[in-house]
Every structure is written in structure tokens, then in C-alpha cells.
Fold these 3 entries.
Entry 1:
Amino acid sequence: MPHVRASTIPAVTATLNARLHTLLEARSALPHPDLVLDFERDLHALGRWWADSIFASWLAFLLEHTDFEARVVAARRAVSERTFKTKGRRDVELKLLGGHCFLLSVRVLRPLRRAGRPRAHGRRGRGKGHQATPTLQALGFARRASPALAAQKLELSASCESIESARRTARARGIAQSQSTWLKQLEVTSTLAQDALNQWLDEPLEDGPLEQVCAAGHRIVIGFDGGRLRERVDKRGRKKSNGYRDFKADWVEPRQLVVYAIDEQGKRLKSWGKLAHASLAPREQMFAQMRKLFENIEIDKAERVIITADGQHWQWDELRQMLLDANVQASKIVEVLDMCHALGRLGEIAHKPARWKQGARSRWFSEGKKRLKSGDVDGLISYCLELAAGSRAKSVKSLTSYFEKHRERMDYASFKTQGIPTGSGAVESMIRQVVNMRLKSCGKFWKRPNAERMLMLRSWWVVGRLEDLWRFSLRQRVSWWKPTQVQGSCAFDYAPLFS
């Protein structure tokens, strides 16, 4: 990545004018498509250089001509249990949103070594211990990347189909980084967001990532289902010649949650938005996280809570118990079996008579579909049991028991009158967007920690809340730095920056 230098705004502007003049002179020939293409890209590259130069100049001015760094260091020492000593200043290479690097001199703090055995020297030389740069943390830098650049890389990693595709997209925007650097940056930033989210679920704060989301007075719909991806588990033994171990890739099932609000007609409230959560965690841990999420959005104050899911029997009991633990009244809970799954079971019964032709099979299925949609579950069960004869009796009775178990969840006529959705298309679509399109593909095998982080990022990106999560994680990391509580004025005079 090319470098930029700190200067004053007039000097940066003068350099910009000179480069622009040179660029225009080089394009003095008659325009043609290739020239126009290159010219527009060169202009955008020049604009990125100008923006990064102004940003770098502002950072250097902030640390050299104001008391910002002294305030940050004092605040960091005040809340730390350990004693820090000043290690001096160090030039740190920072990466900016426009694709340039910038050397900034920051103050380094190092905790005092406790009494005891001195640290031995390793293969990499004398150990330097941990060095803290609270100034960069207060500015929002993560692994030497600016907060805007880190947010850009999080969004590209979550939105693109692969890391290589994300890097190509970033390269077109002037951000060129190796795959190893990208992956290390992604691991740090996504872990930062994941830790902040878990902390918020345990101890809700007023300025959380969902501070403007509240279920009070709304009709809330909860969709829950599972997807599939392949988990990579390395085998024990020596590495191969290419540096990797053999591994096995078994299918695992991540659980996907989607939450949204509907009006009296059953249409989704776009102003309320959506919430999504996905995880490979065990069932108990997953439902514990969901319960905390529901408590944070005050789901107990909702007008009605509607559960839409498929026919897996265990999840209905777990979902209902989780809502009861979140102080939701049982009278507010409505359970709806996805109609498509019910019709699928009806289609299986229709294929049991082996001698039926397609016409007879279709007529029988249409009659059963009418009874299902009208809410006549008892009539549907009797209608299906008429086929329970001879060698197919056992299988037909087994399939028909599906309707008996979910009798109260298939009152579709009443649901339609009340404006309650009769399908789980929202969660099925979410699984496709989160799991299938990002994590489930040919040749994709995921380590479990990496899959957990990507499930979180992709879920929050799909519902349009990844930016809120990233801003919250940056605030959580520097909870010790609150400028509003610092004594004295925080207003800085930027006049020298324009001189």
C-alpha cells in the first residue's frame, strides 16, 4: 500500500492541484472509451489520495498540537489495575480507507514487570512483553486499520461469496492487501464484535447495537430453523508436505433465528426492521442466547408473539419455554406450523397408493389441501386414514400422526383472518442468504470458530445492522475513555492546520 505524509491543508491542496494539472495534460488527446475509463479511475485514485492525506494530517495535528493523547493516557491509567510506565514514542504504520499507509508517532505504555523469574530468550530474540497503544484504541483503530477501513473489510467479508472475492472488490476500491493480512484483520475485528455482542447480551447497556429496537406494543414473529455446512476437523499426526494436515469434513447444522414485526393485516413493518442470529452452539447455549436477546428488546411487552417453524417436535417445546422464561405470557404465544411442510407431508401420503395414476393422485391431494387451508384438521385426518389399508396402513398412520401432533398449529383459516402468517418463508430465506450463499458451497470447509464469527457477521449484514454492531464494539473496547467525563474543555483550535 502506498504511503501518505502529514502536512497542512493548503499544502495538500496545492499538491492536489499540481497532480490534477498533470493528469489533465496527459489526457489531452481526443477521448475514446479506453482513455475515458482510465481517466475516471485515475481521478478517483487521486481523490482517495487527497482524502487520506487530509485524514493523516488531522491525526498528526491531533497528537502534536493538542492534549488529546495526554487525556487518553491519563484515562487509561486511571482505570487499569496494573501500573504502566511510559515506553516512549513509536512510529506505527496505519492503514487508511483510501488504500494508503501513514506513519504516526504514538505514545506506548508497558505494564511494569512483576517480581519473579525473568523471561527467557526465545528463537525470536529478547521478549519485549505487551505494549499498549491506548491512543489508537481511543481513535478506533483495530490492528492498525482505521475504523472506517475495518468496517469496510467486515462488510466485504460478510457480503461477498468468499474472501478472495472480497479482496478483488476491495482492490477495485484502492485497498490492496494480501490474503494473510486480510484474514488476520478479519479475525481480530470479528472477534472484537463477537465479544462485545456477548457482553451486551449478558449486561444490556443503553447504547447497545439494538438500542432503537423494542417489541413493546408490536406483533412479533419468530422464525426458527436449521441449515447445513461442513465443519473442518484436522486429524492428528504429522503435517503433509504442503504444510497442512489431513482433515475430515462432516455436515453440521447451524440454527438460524429471524425476528420481525407485522401489522394487523400481517404485512411486515419495514420501519421495525429485522433481527437475525445464527450459531453452531449446542441447543441449550443457543436458546440461552436467544432468551437474552428477547429480554433486551423487551419481548414480554409485545402485543402478540408468533412462532413459525417446521415440524421438528422438540423445538416447539424449547421455543415456548424460552419465551416463558423471558416473562412472555402464555396467552400471547401463537404457534404456527409452516403450511408448506404440512403440504409436503400430505404429498407423501398421496404417493402411498402405488396403483394410482397421476390424475387420481392430484385430485386426492387437491381435496386434502382444501381441508387443510380451511382449518378442518379433523376432517383431514379422517380423509388420510381412509388410505390406511393393506400393506400401506402402517406408513399412512405414521404420516397422519404428524397432523395429530400439530393439530392446534394448523388452524390456517383462523390465522389468515387474524393477519397471522401461515408460513416460515422468512427464516427459510434467511437460511439461504446466511448459510447457503456464504458458508455452504463446493469446497468450503470451516473451522468452528471461523464459522461462528462468519454466521454472526453475515446475519447482521443481511438485516442491515452490521454497521451498528461495529460501532458498538468500538465503544465497548474503549469504555474507559469517555471524553464527556474528562475535566476541562475538549474543544481544539484547528487554525494551525489551515495555515
Entry 2:
Amino acid sequence: MSAVLEIDGTGIRFGGLVALEDVNVKVPEWEIVGLIGPNGAGKTTLFDCITGLSTPNTGRVVYRGRDVSGLPTHRRVALGIGRTFQNIGLVRGLSVLENCLVAQHARVGYGTLGGILGSPRSFSEERRLKRNAMEVLDFFELGHLASSGLEGLPYGTLKLVEIATVMATDPDLVLLDEPSSGMGPDEAHALGERLLELRKTLNITVLMIEHHVPLVVDVCDYVYVLNFGRVLTEGKPGEVQNHPEVVAAYLGGEAESNGEHSEEAAGGAA
């Protein structure tokens, strides 16, 4: 299966700090790929390199066979790369629906003058964008919150709203940075089911940073483990979950040979 995204030998330094070194990651089409590792391992920095918020010192970011390393963030978004953030990237002063509408600005089909004058095309486009936004919100069971402001919404709900705003842009590749943060086990399980349904119905590809290991095991086809800016290991979720080096990286010690202890430690790595 062809790769939608390839991270080829990516490395980046901030002064004397090596944040990433020779990282190679491949995300095949229509797969959900997990990226896990301890805090400070370089996971979000890798997302910044993929989306253009940071410029690697070495390596390439290849999207659908095209080297996009030199493109600015907005150009990468226009190509079909969507992203959520570890710290929620929503406009606090706007409603849930308005955030979904703002997210679609790159796909507006009328010019500035048409928007100012209120041309028939601009009204038609606004109706289309609103219809699209409501369809996405309904999918995430957020339609009843469309007119609500963000203040007072639970953190887990805000994470869902952020994912919905990204999906409203009709991305081809979605980068999710800790999507289950702030959610309880039941909410995280429901999120996993929605991600699988999104993959099935919209044929999207996902690269996901996640600390909730049960979610990773449930939805990911393949997993990469980062530690100290390098890929520690990679493989199927079940294999990676109980890998001795992965358990050691999370817990700072050697994994016990006892299978029950290893499973508990890996499961607690969230």
C-alpha cells in the first residue's frame, strides 16, 4: 500500500538540544498509525516538522510523493494535511459552529469583494460551509452545541470540537495530538470507534500521538515509539505494548520477565 506521508531522516536541533535525530516514519494510505513515547520524546516536535511550524535541520517530509519540506504551513493545509494540537487550538471567543466555519476559510469559493458586497455566490458558499460544518458536528454528536460558546465546556468535549473543526476542512491526512486527553475510559473508547468509522467512511489516513495505550491498541494498525528524539522501536500495537525497551522507556527501569507485570506496566504507560 502506498504511503501518504514519509518522514525521511528528519532531525532538528534547538541550540545544543537535539530534539529529533534521524527519524524515519511511514504512514500508509487509509491506516491509523500511532506515535507514542514518554513526555519530551519529541512527538509534538515531529508534528511541527510535518506541518511546517518547525524547520528540520536534516531530512525530508514527503506527502503523496512530493517533498513538502519547503512549503509554509498554509500550503500544506491546502494540500490536505489537517492537525489538532496538544493545547487546544480553538478560537475562544467564537461558538462551536463558528470555529468549524473559520476552519474552512481556505476552501471558500468567493473573493474578498464578493464577501463584502454580499454577492449571491458568497451567500450560497456560506450555506454550503454551514451545512458541511453541521454534518461534521452531528457525526461527533456535537450538533446540539453548535451555538454554544467554548467557555464552560468540559476539556474532553473541547478536544472533540477541535477534531471536528479539522475534519470540517476535508483533510486527506489527519495529525491528532493526544486526542483523548481529558477524556475518561468510556469517552476514549467512543472516540476510538468514531476514528475507525471516519477511516471507513471517508478513507482518511491518521497519524496519532496518544498516551492512552488501550486506545492505541484498539485503533492503530502500526505504532512507532519515540524516546530521546529517536525511534526506539516500531511494529504492531500488541508487540510494541509489551516490548521490554518500551516498558523501560516509560518506567525508567528494566521490564520484568513476568508476563503479567509487563502487561500492567505497558498498560499504565498512558
Entry 3:
Amino acid sequence: LTASGGPFRGKKAEELKTVTLAQALNHPRWKMGNKITIDSATLMNKGFEVIEARWLFDMAPQQIDVVVHPESIIHSMVEYCDGAVMAQLGLPDMAIPISLALEYPKRLSNRLERLDLKTVGALTFEAPDMETFRCLRFAYDALKAGDTYCAALNAANEAAVAAFLEGKIAFCAIQDCLDEVLQRHRPSKGADLDEIIRVDAWARETARNILEV
């Protein structure tokens, strides 16, 4: 999976303490809704994609890798058993995947700008900094822990991001909150839908209490 790195790519934890909401919403490549844009800034969105890929493609967490690709031209890659890697390329425009989702398995023709590799220039890649952007690590941890950890992580993140968007907490408080919620969580094994809903409500309330919002 490729991640753009968001607006704070390359920054360290100390630098993130003073970032503003406007800076977090100023994504360098994608135009998305506010919640997803903040998730991109924390790398939580890529963490959720790791969780999704595990279930969509029946893969173990260690089979799913994330690389930071700031140009956002390659959107995903698949490595086959012979070592060949196939990549899906396109301009960073959400209209393309939305169109495919609406008409799958057909592809709709459109008048969107076309990818011109001659003008793109270099495509670069780097490892994600999961010490600074801990949300991505939390996703891997929750996935490996199993049970209801992923449900708790998702719900707590929604509560924390909402508080940040409302100007009630600092940017770094998002991942501090998620860390605390995961530590407090007592997982339910073999949970049914009712239990998932209970965990969701618990995580949201716990996050709000931690953040005092």
C-alpha cells in the first residue's frame, strides 16, 4: 500500500506539537473530506487500509507493507510468488476509484485529466516513520491482537479526530488518546454484532473522557 505521507511528511514528533488545524487540512496531493484528510495527516487512514486489506484479501498482517510515495501516482502494488510486482497507477483523483466502485466490474469513460508519465518525473519511495506517526503502528498492533481491538481503534479515532476538528485538542493528542484507549481495552473474543456495537460505544466514551471533551 502506498501513502502520500500527508502534509507533515518528514516532520518529527516535536515539530507536530504545534501544527494547526489549517495545516493538517492542507493536503499536498488529495482533496478529501476533513475527517479523512486528518487521518491522512496522522497516517491512520493507511492503518485502516492495512486492516481492510487483511480481510478483503485474506492476508496475514506481515504480508501487507506500507511505503510512503509522496507523488501519489502509484496507488497500490501486488507482489506475486515469482517476485514480479504489478502496480496500479493514476492521478490522485478520488473520482476515479469512486467511479469504479459505482460501476464495478465495468469502467466508465470520463473526461478527467489523463496520467502522462512523460511529465510526472521521478517516483520516490521511503519507509513510513511509525515512531513519529504512531497511528499506523497502532493499526498493525490492533490487527495482530485481533478480537475487538480494531473496532475500539476505529471508534476512538473517530472521537479524537472530531475533537481535533472542533478545535478542542492538539494534533498530537489524537495518537496519545488512541494509545491509551488500546491499553485500557479488554477484548471480547468471538464477538457478535451487539458486542461490537458495545465496544464501539465504550471506545468513543473512553476517548472523550481521556481528552476531557
